[in-house]
Amino acid sequence: MTVPPIALTQEYGPAGAPLVVLGPSIGTSSMLWEQVIPLLSDRFRVVAWDPPGHGRARPATEPFTMGELAEAVAQAVGGSKPFLYAGVSLGGAVGLELLLRHPELVKAAAIVCSGAKIGDPGTWRERAEQVRAQSTSARIIPSAQVWFAPGSIEREPDLTGRLLHVLQDADDESYAACCEALAEYDVRDRLGEITAPVLAVWGEHDTATPEASAAEVANGVRDGRLERIAGAAHLPPAERAQETADLLRDFFEAKG
Question: What is the dihedral angle through the alpha carbons of 27, 134, 5, 85, rounded to the nearest 10 degrees?
């Protein structure tokens, strides 16, 4: 089994408080959660992770699956102490894989702007080929169009701009490997195995993983709930930090 390289941030919040693990979307890093972490860390112990070749994580040296990426997160977090989880897009897919592979570890999970299958396999493979040929810089304009709702860049110019720099600076091969892992990812027929509470969140303006994607998760697991974040597209933690934190806090305090 391949264990792809990821990187954890420092832990924030009171020692001994319930642990919350936060996962990013493809092309971003733990920076995605930087405005949410202070809003959670008064009540929770919080840590976020960077995908292979993104942020502070070393580049991937071989292909990996979403399940193997979930194993990397479980190992990095410690592999024994139960935790709460929230992940966006790719990070949400990792959350579902964690729920399936390590039900004893994940007490509850928020799957944000994600799904049991994301996009079309052929499109992901084409994107991997594009990035290998042209670098991640080729993804900046199309990603900005999908990531951010109207007004988000103007409302959060610093954070949204720095997130686009994370994309530009990401290792090309690692980004392509993430695309290929997403092309193979599909756990739709296994959702009924998930017994932990799941909050499926969608952004009002999200075209990549719209309401139907979140509803499929909420309806497919045994204990699911569906929520919308108004005024957000694909990256609610960056676009609507307070609303995202409020949803997570309420869900984790009730279910965790």
Answer: 20
d(CA 94, CA 33): 16
Cα–Cα distances in Å, from 220 out to 155, 194, 213, 214, 248?
A: 35, 9, 11, 10, 20
pTM: 0.96
Identify the sign of the CA torsion 30, 31, 37, 39. Answer: negative
Burial bucket for residue 12 (CB in 10 Å: 0-12, 13-18, 19+) = middle
Secondary element (H or E) of residue 45:
strand 45-50
Report angle CA 214, 120, 51 to the nearest 5 degrees.
Answer: 70
Tokens of 138: 């080729």
Please state, in angstroms and rounded to a whole number, the distance separating the CA atoms of residues 132 and 171.
10
pLDDT tens figures, 110-131 = 999 999 999 999 999 999 999 9
Which H or E run contains 181? helix 172-184
Biggest distance spanned by C-alpha atoms of the chain = 47
